[in-house]
Every structure is written in C-alpha cells, then in structure tokens.
Amino acid sequence: MTEYDVIVIGAGPVGENVADRVVRGGLTAAIVEAELVGGECSYWACMPTKALLRDAAALRAARRLPGAAAAITGDLDPAAVFARRDRFASGWKDDGQVAWLDQVGISLVRGHGRLAGTRTVTVTADSGDVVTLTARHAVVLATGTSASVPAVPGLADAGAWTNREAVSATRAPERLAIIGGGVVGSEMATAFSALGSSVTLIARDGVLPNVEPYASEHVLAALRDAGVDVLIGGSPTSVSRDAAGTVHIALADGGVVEADEVLVATGRTPNSADLGLDRVGLTPGTWLTVDDTLRVLDASGEPLGDGWLYAAGDINRRALLTHQGKYQARAVGDVIVARATGAAVEDAPWGRHTPTADLRAVPQVVFTEPEIASVGHTVASAERAGLKVRSVEYDLGAVAGAALHADGYAGRASILIDDEGDRIVGFTAVGPDVAELLHAATIAITAEVPLDRLWHAVPAYPTVSEVWLRLLETAGL
C-alpha cells in the first residue's frame, strides 16, 4: 500500500500512540521510522536511564535501614547494572515493538520520511530506494529531538558523548566530565558516580536551575557527598583529546578539567532539519508551532492548508517529556478520527481533543539522589505567568511516614496556592522515593480541587503522603 488515512513520521512512543488511536478509530495508518521502532525513550533515554539509576537507589534505601544494612556484604556490581539496563533497552533491537505494530494493524515503512507536498511523504530507505506515500486525511510529525551540542571549539572532535552514548555505555569511565547541570547532567552524574566513575559536573547555570531552589540544593549536597566535583558557573572555552586519550576541558576561569570521557547535556534541538518542511512553506530546523488541537500553524498563525499537518511530542516544544508526548498523541489520534468521520471536535480547554495539561499541570520526576517530583508552577514560573501565589513548605523528615521509611530521612515539600482561586497551582517535593507523591498532586492541580475540599482527602497514617495534611495545616486550614 502507498495510500493510508494517516501517515506518522517517527515511531517513538508519541508516533506509536498516534497511530494506535487512529487504527482504534477505524482508520488506516502507516508509521515511518529511520532508526529503531520505540524511539529515544526506549533505547537512549527514559528506560535505560532509570535502569542505570535503580540499583544504586535500592542499595542506598537498604543502607538507610539498620536491619537491611546488616545483610549487605558487598558493593554495587556495575556489570550486573549494565546487563539489566541492556534487557530494558531490548539489546537495542526493536523486534518486539515491530511485532506490536503488526499485531494492532499499523503498517511500518522503514526509512527517512520527508514531506513532499500536501499529504505526501517520501521515504528513502537505507538502500536508496524511495517510496511515495499519500495520506487521505492527515500527516503527523512525531520526530522528537536530539541532544544539542554547543559550539565549543574542539568539543565535537574530542568524541563527546551525548545521552545516547552515556546510557548505552558498556563500562563506567574512570573519569567522566559532564557539561550541563540540567536533568540529564544531574541524573548521569548520580548514575556514574554510583557506578564508580570520578565525576566532574560543569554546571554553568547551576544544578537543576528550573526547579525550586530548595530542591536543587538537596541534590547539589547529595552529589557532593557522593564525591562529584560540581563546578557551579563553570563555562568551557575549548576541548581537546590528546594522543593518550585524555580529554582536556579549558574553562573560562582558567581552570582545566581532565577526563577519560566528556558528556554533553546542554539541552535538546528539534529533529526538523531534514523533514521537507520547506516543501510546505515552513522553515527547516525549527520548533513547530501548533494550535490547541496540535495542527501545525503557518507563518500567519493559521493551520497549514486545510489543517492536514499535525505535530505531536517534543517537536512542538510544549512539554519535552515522554508522558506528555503520549498524552498529546492520544488527543491527536482521536481528533484526526473525529475530523475524518465528521464527529464533534472537543477543542475547548480540558476537552478530549485539547491537551490543556501541557500548559498547566506537567508532572516530572528527576531521578537523582534524592528524587525531585514536581507538577505545575514553581514560584518563579508563577511570577512569570502573572499569578499571585503563596508558597507553603514543610519538612518531609518531620512526617512520621518518612521517618519510618528511612533513618535520617531528609527532604522537603511545598505547594503553591493561587490566592485568587484558592487552589493549588504547583507542587514540588525532594527526598527519597517522592515520585510516589506526584500523581496525587497532579490530580489536585488538574481537577482544580478547592482547598476546603482537599482538606477532606485524608492521607493514610503512617505514610509519606501525610505531608499533604501538614502542608494544608501550615497553610492555615
């Protein structure tokens, strides 16, 4: 077949979910992929990253309990960690994902997809063969992002790692330098220091600068306790690798960092440079702008043509997280079916076809030591949005459930209260295993639960979730 109802370029979690919703709705779909079906998350990001981090987190948790600590007679086994990571990355083979596509009735076309005109996609296979596909209703771009490598002289020639090389590494280098203190840099510093590397984290803008300051301070302290050399404000000016293989990173302050490998973790760039955007009047290499139902907009701010082109996931820059991309994908697949079949389009805020949570309630977990869980606004982002909020904080270590969870439990949680609406618009927690607190906060913010009603959501005792009661009490309820 060369004609389908919907063509999706990109077979990561976002593209897979778009195609699945389309097929469930009774339409036909083809998905185009140049690499592995399953995308960045399955092989080079979420899954292998969490696998690299989990063993060390479990060991730390056991060592915080005296009875369990007494049973530990050895140290972390890096080879076993890497082997488990390999299993969760499926050995970097996509047979299982391809089998799923076939099972649910989604056609897979291997090769590099490019727009060739309205509802038309050309696919170039590795062999050079080209096939032209036509969509009856829509084309969806779900090609995600790649690591952004800054233009530091010598960095590319030094064989710098990105997240791909880091999470697929077969050993921990003796010395690892990481450029960038964001999520990837902080998580990889946590992982490789536990695996035995001597890690230097060059964090020009600080460690996790986009979270609440108290949360980043906990992570910074833990990294330093783990032996990570954190250089706040460090800015590389040049990088070189000598004949012996040592990487030399010159810093603006005159210092030099030496390492066996250097990892670049300075942000993401959209995979849109070679998508044929110029063939439909758009600018290659840019983030795509979309409307409330994720139709791509042209330079005038109108849906392209008759609204046949959509962009879901990282490429539209609404929320660069896999779970948010999949959320968008479900909305996109359903709205395409609705428009194709003449059904009603629910495009009001919080409607079925409008991923409103991307703008108001995005949950995220940073799997450092300790974890950071957050959803909605921080104090800084609320101020930028013009909201009048008050922050209420509470010491997690003072909660009975947390004290039972681990000896010496240290952490903190906060809520942001919109005084005009008397509701929560932001939540952040830092501490061991705080990820399990996050969904309750996401529900409270998404549902806009009034504080006087939230007061009646009684947390079980003794659990870490009791912090909700303490936060509300501190807020004056």
From TrEMBL:
Domain FAD/NAD(P)-binding: start-end pairs: 4-324
Pfam hit, one: Pyr_redox_2
UniProt organism field:
Labedella populi
Q: What is this protein called?
A: NAD(P)/FAD-dependent oxidoreductase
Q: Known InterPro entries for this protein? A: Class-I_Pyr_Nuc-Dis_Oxidored, FAD/NAD-bd_sf, FAD/NAD-binding_dom, FAD/NAD-linked_Rdtase_dimer_sf, Pyr_nuc-diS_OxRdtase, Pyr_nucl-diS_OxRdtase_dimer
Q: Which GO terms describe its biological process?
A: 2-oxoglutarate metabolic process
Which GO MF terms does the UniProt record name?
Answer: dihydrolipoyl dehydrogenase (NADH) activity; flavin adenine dinucleotide binding
Sites binding FAD sit at 50, 113, 314
